[in-house]
């Protein structure tokens, strides 16, 4: 049997309460399975919470407090997590950032925007101002820094393998100036040519496909089941129900089949970058 890995409770708020949860559970003489009985959650899910890999949902926190007689301790930790999430990324996305760091492979579809880790500052600012027009400059600057911190996903040789499918309209919509858009697309070409990202462009006049709306991530891991994440303007949802994840995975395969091959997609991005540089698009 493999040795159990210790938990560094100082690493994050989830790691802190995860370590405490394991200690309380074992002190009560309960297994993972016994602890989740009567809840809607599984033993694997609880194990990932104890290891600081997931944030404890409020419903499960209340269940654990009742079962282990912890006087509302874990419910109060949920409030701490909400505060911690506000420091950087949006509350609904904070967990996804943690998952990205552990992922072995990421498959992403985005119908309207360049994926976040590929965005440069002018593009990020345009997106942030569109969604939050009254945001203070200090907050906008923090959002730019936070998003650029995620660039390692596509640029680091140790990052996960990434397969990106983007709609052609993303290349044709100049949400920033021509020179800035040319630089943005040239940056994407540079990252792709390092062979860290496999791109596909879905043509604007392409056939119907399963992902007609909403951005979607599919993530696989070495040590846990695959997950998917879907996002709207101001909300997002992580889905880990196996049958539903399998259904989305199959649909993503059909999406890739409808998109252009990677070589043709790269040529299209290069061509669009040149056209912006030559001022062929008007805002």
From TrEMBL:
One of its GO terms (molecular function) is DNA binding. It comes from the Bacteria. Pfam families: DUF5753. Residues 94-271 form the DUF5753 domain. This is XRE family transcriptional regulator. It comes from Streptomyces typhae.
């Amino acid at each position: 049997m493999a040795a159990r890995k210790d938990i560094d409770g100082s690493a994050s708020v989830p790691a802190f309460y995860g370590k405490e949860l394991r200690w309380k559970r074992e002190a009560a003489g309960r297994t993972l399975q016994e602890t989740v009985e009567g809840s809607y959650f599984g033993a694997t899910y609880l194990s990932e919470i104890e290891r600081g890999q997931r944030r404890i949902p409020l419903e499960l926190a209340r269940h654990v407090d009742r079962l282990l007689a912890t006087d509302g301790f874990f419910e109060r930790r949920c409030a701490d997590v909400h505060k911690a999430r506000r420091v950087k990324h949006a509350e609904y996305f904070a967990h996804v950032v943690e998952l990205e760091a552990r992922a072995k492979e990421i498959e992403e579809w985005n119908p309207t925007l360049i994926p976040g880790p590929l965005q440069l500052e002018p593009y990020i600012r345009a997106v942030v101002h569109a969604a939050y027009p009254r945001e203070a400059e200090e907050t906008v600057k923090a959002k730019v820094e936070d998003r650029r911190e995620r660039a390692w996903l596509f640029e680091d040789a140790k990052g996960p393998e990434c397969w990106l499918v983007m709609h052609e309209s993303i290349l044709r919509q100049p949400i920033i100036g021509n020179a800035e858009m040319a630089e943005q697309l040239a940056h994407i070409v540079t990252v792709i040519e390092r062979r860290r990202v496999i791109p596909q462009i879905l043509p604007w006049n392409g056939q119907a496909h399963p992902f007609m709306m909403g951005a979607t991530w599919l993530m696989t891991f070495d040590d846990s089941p695959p997950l998917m994440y879907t996002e709207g303007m101001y909300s997002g949802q992580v889905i880990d129900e196996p049958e539903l994840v399998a259904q989305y995975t199959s649909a993503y395969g059909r999406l890739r089949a409808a998109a252009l091959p990677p070589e043709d997609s790269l040529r299209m991005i290069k061509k669009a970058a040149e056209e912006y540089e030559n001022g062929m698009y008007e805002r």
